[in-house]
Amino acid sequence: MQGEGRLDVNGGTKWSRLLTTDSPLPSSSSSSNLEHVDNDIGDIGEAGNMGMESLDYEVVESLAYREDQAQRGMWRHVSYITLKWTFSLLIGVGTGLSAFFINISVENFSGWKFAATFAVMRHSYILGFLLYVLFNGALVFSSVYIVTQFAPAAAGSGIPEIKAYLNGIDTPGILLFRTLVGKILGSIGSVGGGLALGKEGPLVHTGACIASVLGQGGSTNYNVKWRWLRRFKNDRDRRDLVTCGCAAGVAAAFRSPVGGVLFALEEVTSWWRSQLLWRVFFTSAVVAVVVRTAMRWCGNGNCGHFGSGGFIIWDISGGQDDYSFYELLPMAMLGAIGGLLGALFNQLTIFLSSWRRNVLHKKGNRVKIMEACLVSLITSVLSFGLPLMTKCTPCPNPEKYPDVVCPRPSGQYGNYVNFNCHSESHYNDLATIFFNTQDDAIRNLFSTNTPREYNSYTLITFLVTFFLLALVTYGTAVPSGQFVPGIMIGATYGRLVGILVVNASNRDSVDEGTYALLGAASFLGGSMRMTVSLCVIMVEITNNLKLLPLIMLVLLISKAVGDAFNAGFYEEQVQLRGLPVLDSRPKRFMRNMSAKYTIGTKKVIQFSRISKVGHIVSVLRSNNHNGFPVIDWLHNGETVVIGLILRSYLIVLLQAKADFQLTPIPGDTRGRITFRYDVRDFAKPVSSKGVSIHDINISPAEMEMYIDLEPFVNPTPYIVPEDMSLTKVYNLFRQLGLRHICVVPRPSRVLGVITRQDLLPEVLEERAMVEEAISSRGRYEAPPYEEL
Amino acid sequence: MQGEGRLDVNGGTKWSRLLTTDSPLPSSSSSSNLEHVDNDIGDIGEAGNMGMESLDYEVVESLAYREDQAQRGMWRHVSYITLKWTFSLLIGVGTGLSAFFINISVENFSGWKFAATFAVMRHSYILGFLLYVLFNGALVFSSVYIVTQFAPAAAGSGIPEIKAYLNGIDTPGILLFRTLVGKILGSIGSVGGGLALGKEGPLVHTGACIASVLGQGGSTNYNVKWRWLRRFKNDRDRRDLVTCGCAAGVAAAFRSPVGGVLFALEEVTSWWRSQLLWRVFFTSAVVAVVVRTAMRWCGNGNCGHFGSGGFIIWDISGGQDDYSFYELLPMAMLGAIGGLLGALFNQLTIFLSSWRRNVLHKKGNRVKIMEACLVSLITSVLSFGLPLMTKCTPCPNPEKYPDVVCPRPSGQYGNYVNFNCHSESHYNDLATIFFNTQDDAIRNLFSTNTPREYNSYTLITFLVTFFLLALVTYGTAVPSGQFVPGIMIGATYGRLVGILVVNASNRDSVDEGTYALLGAASFLGGSMRMTVSLCVIMVEITNNLKLLPLIMLVLLISKAVGDAFNAGFYEEQVQLRGLPVLDSRPKRFMRNMSAKYTIGTKKVIQFSRISKVGHIVSVLRSNNHNGFPVIDWLHNGETVVIGLILRSYLIVLLQAKADFQLTPIPGDTRGRITFRYDVRDFAKPVSSKGVSIHDINISPAEMEMYIDLEPFVNPTPYIVPEDMSLTKVYNLFRQLGLRHICVVPRPSRVLGVITRQDLLPEVLEERAMVEEAISSRGRYEAPPYEEL
């Protein structure tokens, strides 16, 4: 009765007015780059073509949501919590096992490769070389083939995309099951194939993918899904899971659980809560246990060539742990070099990557495959050829260094590689670091108590060659991480500086391996610009806490020097990909702009509460906004904003057609929708575009019907007055992880002021108890705009 | 002209209407506990009497502020950044030196005490006992005397108050210079006096005080201040400094820089930015270097008794670093015991502390002093008497344990104390942990490769006694930390479990010292409920990374068990003190409440733009709100909210009297106030009440004058529509660190929707460039409500 009565009062004028004023906008309005187009990220460079989507970390408190919440009893709450922790456990186990699988595969492929090459080389150098090249080429080809044909989103490091995801931008394909498979297999191929890249960045992506696949309840494409897992089908819960996955990835890659937590915190996340810390920590701990258990199992010889390691732990606990005052100078110098070289590396990767994106990779997959194979060929030729041209060095005096095994026994792993040496007591210092797996090469560079193992010229040759190789390799269409190349580059010049210090001081306490470690830290600091997490990772992988202050010093300097030139590696890559990541702080110039400024003169596109289906369809087709204010009319003819409706909700409604009605009469819709929609029906699947408006068929008769939007709007979007400075708007948007903020006129009155006291749970509870006895007035029910 | 014209139109009615409607409210309106009183925190239990103040982390974008910002050139920006980093450096140096000073004093006092006692005991046990009691009593008395008479805010741990400060509540006196001095001197007395408490918590408070004093540019009371340092006189910058100070405190206390950063992040801060991480890290690194340098200097024998340590580093790198599967059971048991005992400890401290606060300590300082002296006496009697009643144990076989020095040489530090043993080859195991400095006792409990050093009965005796002592001691009016007592309690039962495991397994690889360490971790985890930070601190102080997974496991269990019973130690203390800290997440029941609910039926107290001085004074006197909406009238007679004015601003205006005017004519005030007020004049000094309205004298003639509030309002406070759910309001309030939120009616129209794209700096910059050529329209100028 109420609805009809209302229609009697102002129905006729109201709905007719609505249908004329709300005519579809001309479609030309979304053409210019500077217009207010709410496609969220569509107009930033290339991004529009890639179909990125903003994520919505705000809860849409629609009627559907509130009914869902009301149904949630204690049991659902408990099962939700249990599920969260179970997922954390599973992410840890999954990431740990993936890391183990990748490592065991890489080590075995590399092992077979080097064993076969050394065996053939005894007969013919040329055949050995061919075998080496073909083996590498085959691995790299399989990697690039899988990536280009099957999982294009698996190329590269993946960390920039994950960073963007956790900032609120979903890149298509980045968190799918196929990407996970492509990443794991691709990593094995590219790292096993000896390219100048690492498997650590991809492991972070792998962890994030595992988290996302779990959170989705399986893969939609492969029809592996469980209904009860769909509890996590909202962006906020998924964000938390992906954060756990990132930490797990780092924890697995470096066997560094605390480092993993800090990495997630410092480098990839945009929002953080202390409750999350606890869960992320748990996930990392699980990874540590899984990896440890798996390695124990391998210790019994079950894993082929893996026996000797693979998981990077470069124990340098035998190294230098004290330093004299004058050594601070070369160490500071290391920091400066790291900053300079790191910034240079970042800058050159930007040029190369943007050339690749804009020119080379536009030519199709065939070019990508050829490029990767070419890089593999160059790498093989250099890593085989350069050591071949290097003179061998006599082994160190066994009496002075009784622990040194020189040269290492054929077919085994270790230091002092005998490559192309004609004497049995010689070793090839360039081959020791170049003709080796990367983990072993780093171990050899970090090796302590091996003074003068490397000739300065060898190190310089390797530094230049490897720097260029790493540069060229990053950006090919294979999964690639930057940690290991960074460590190798840094360790090389670190060892160089160490040689200088040893020569200058003639003291035994100076250890070249320690300088190599500091060099590695400095290059990573200069390139990636991480601080605490990198510091902890370096300490954890070298297992030497006493080096902490030195690593800190080096990192402080290298980051400061690097920051003078450009942004960090991942930030640059984020920008290059056109990922519209919002920094945690607004820019200074935003102080002088107001919210009104961003709106400009554009008319806002809005719906009225009861809208014609045809009108909705034409509006949705004519623009690509994702949120539309919904208005209604009061009895006195004034308008009132009843909320914001999302495009995705409208599309679900248009698809279901269940709420179409013949007359524009607002009914009392409460309680009705529960049986028709689940709140999760409105959730968009991760990393893929939802249904488009153009995919929906609506008959002409249906076009003439009406729909009451009230139950589906978010009744209370965050609002700001039009003259609020952009700094404050930015903070609101960024801190709360919003997708839309409504700009409203300056309010005409203030109903009250909320302070800290009003929000204290104990005060509210007490008050609720007092009032419960008296009445239920003021409780949160339906949007009370009708009573205004 | 414009102002006058406006007055002609609607001035007469407008101002007269204002003066009648805005009559002062009856003073009875602020009497009930459940009314909407905006004294922020005044009505929460005892808090009101303590005069806590809310902090304002939001920038008040008043005209004064904007003019100040406009003047800031590049140079001021650079000097601001430089100052920030200089402060971080100084906080690090200051905290490091303070920690060093406390440690050196404690070690020397303890050294003299034990040396003198042992010397006298050779002649007479009774004289030795008297000397011991008097020495302890004198130190504790000096501590409690300093604290009660001079710096009452220095009592206790200080961490709960710092936590509250960083959440937005300023407790009076907590961050003053006198508190700093009281804390340092008090710590020396209470720790040197052998009480069952630690110096680590107080060091965190010390670091925070140093940060705050620096940030204030010296102490106001002692007239040590520099004008140029006043740049930091705002709550946000001070918050960042205090965060650095906390991290520095932990870094200094445990020589654990990474642990310090994590502690600040996990335990004390409520807001966190990644830029801050970098600065906090820097501060911690500085502390590490300062402490190291100072200890080197002491290594040359410059520091008396300090030579043997003092800074807690319990190196147990010789301990167990592998474990068999079945050992996970006793380790999990340790976790469970830690959770149970920790929760029990928390619960008992709550009872004791609340009794102290409500009964005992209300009786005045004399009682507090007597209480502390009594506790000291009991501690002395027990720590002297119990070992006296213990039988001595023969030293371990020197052939089997060649490294063991047993008993330790007289007058030196170490393990195996000969106390009341009649044979030279015996030691007293209870005295080894009880009649010793706490650092040495912990070192002895953690000592590796000393199986069966302690008898089970000895450990049980010590555990029970020390648990009770720690319980009674916490809450006396001396600075007291809970880390060291927690470690001692945990290490004792850890060692007990270790003995059980050794007996059950008969394997040499099981090390009691490692179990002691895990026990310590479990008790701290069960009591304080920290995770990552505690884990890193434990690893850093024991210098053994390999124990990381075990410590993680134990912590996970102990925290989970403890959480089943009560909240963490600091959270409980925060609640007990009535500090209205807002948790990072809203409670579940807030979903069902709306913003309107918090307002209730109370009428909002507001000012009009031009208000009578007398009216302002009477409103300020009649209530204790801190923020008042300010309204104005449009040409058509409608009202518009022009912003929110803070009580502190009004008081400054009333005190200065410079803006009083005879007629209610709004003038064009822009540019005028610059010369009269500095933006910093409006800032409240930290940890003390500002000027009260009752302290201001205004003549009757002045009472009749007017004041134009427009230049001083915050024109754009954050607003929420009345029916927004409290969950969302809470998030807004908490995430942005607000002090006031204005509740407004549901808006009548939306001017536009802001999305991610609208806030991207590059988009805004591009647009600004385009528009700059055309016009300056839409830029942020004065509040444009006149043009509405």
TrEMBL record, chains A, B:
Keywords: CBS domain, Chloride, Chloride channel, Ion channel, Ion transport, Membrane, Repeat, Transmembrane, Transmembrane helix, Transport, Voltage-gated channel
Pfam families in UniProt: CBS, Voltage_CLC
Membrane topology (UniProt): Multi-pass membrane protein
Record's subcellular location: Membrane
Domain annotation CBS: ranges: 713-769
Top-rank taxon: Eukaryota
Segments crossing the lipid bilayer: 81-104, 124-147, 241-264, 276-295, 328-349, 457-477, 483-503, 515-541
Protein family per UniProt: Belongs to the chloride channel (TC 2.A.49) family.
Name this protein carries in UniProt: Chloride channel protein
Native organism: Sphagnum jensenii
Source taxonomy: Eukaryota, Viridiplantae, Streptophyta, Embryophyta, Bryophyta
